[in-house]
Amino acid sequence: MSIDIVEILKEPKMTKVCAPMVRYSKLQFRTLVRQYDCDICFTPMILADSFIQSEKARDNEFSTNTGDKPLIVQFAAKNVYDFLNATELVAPYCNGVDINCGCPQRWALKEGYGADLLKKPDLVKDLIYQVRNRIPHPFTVSAKIRLFKDIHKTIDFCRILEKAGASFLTVHARTPEMRCEPIDLNNLKLVRDSVKLPLIANGDVKSLESAENLYKESNCDAVMSARGILTNPALFSGYSVTPLDCIQNWLDITSTIPTQFICFHHHLVFMLEKILPKKNRLFFNSLQNKAAVLEFLKDTYGIKPNNNSKSFDLIKCIFNTSHKKYNKDIAKDDDDLSMNFLGNIFTE
Ligand SMILES: Cc1cc2nc3c(=O)[nH]c(=O)nc-3n(C[C@H](O)[C@H](O)[C@H](O)COP(=O)(O)O)c2cc1C
């Protein structure tokens, strides 16, 4: 795979990106949004240490097929050793890796993942630097961050990552403490003006129009959508709500790629949120098996899976874990940081 995501981001047009979403931005959903003008997809966040340790985790967390590109695999990691080894394993099957520096959930902060990494610029610098030095271009290494309360800290953080060799950054223009309040466009613009790296702007893209506004106002190179594209996978094609052919495509994709019922159903729940009247929605959301869902869709919209639909053959991923290429020595800087971290606990 020699797709160059940086070149795509540098094209003088708005690049449209599907966000990493735990449980949701899996192969089936990526296949769907790629049919509606989505240029780049992220996997859900995958725990790097489980990925290197457990075959079951690898099988559960990652699958791909020949059409699934450009693809960025996002990891949660808190040391260089895990990030590098996980990257090594997955690199033959994707176009880049990303480190999650934005997840604000309590479990992630407690475990030292996600937004907790915003407090550890030296570690994130090392994660980026080590991957950049070991996996050749055009493979990308990037970080997805949230804003710091102090914009100077955000700018410093981004400049450190730029210097370490990051290919691009994604900025969710909220601080880890912010929930549903509007994004901080002014601070996003300040970040934009402070680094030369391609930037993906993220936050509140709910329609093609809002994507275009964010692209123009932020002056970033690309826009990323999470909740918006979940509710309407066709939004980058300009649809204001999920079109019926998108539901048809979902049925076709999920009848070819093995999909657990909960994933199959949840996505339909999101997609129908804006188009089903409330009473039908409550009924639909309570359905417990695929046959009942298919019957509902047939009765309500006359839609059923198309038996002659295109097949989406999975790539058989072979992960060579017989020797972990990088040993713990590589994480020397990180160990030092962990010591600091423990030190902080005791001095608090
Ligand atoms: C269901 C869900 C799962 C998410 N999972 C991830 C994830 O795995 N990694 C990540 O960096 N962000 C994750 N996010 C955050 C989104 O990628 C995005 O930054 C955030 O939702 C703001 O974008 P939006 O306003 O378009 O939703 C998730 C968000 C949602 C709604």
From TrEMBL:
Molecular function GO terms recorded: flavin adenine dinucleotide binding; tRNA-dihydrouridine20a synthase activity; tRNA-dihydrouridine20b synthase activity
GO biological process, one term: mRNA processing
Record-linked InterPro entries: Aldolase_TIM, DUS-like_FMN-bd, tRNA_hU_synthase_CS
The DUS-like FMN-binding domain, residue ranges: 18-275
SUPFAM superfamilies, alphabetized: FMN-linked oxidoreductases
Cofactor needs: FMN
Keywords: Flavoprotein, FMN, mRNA processing, NAD, NADP, Oxidoreductase, tRNA processing
Pfam family of the protein (one): Dus
Protein name, per record: tRNA-dihydrouridine(20a/20b) synthase [NAD(P)+]
Source organism of the structure: Melipona quadrifasciata
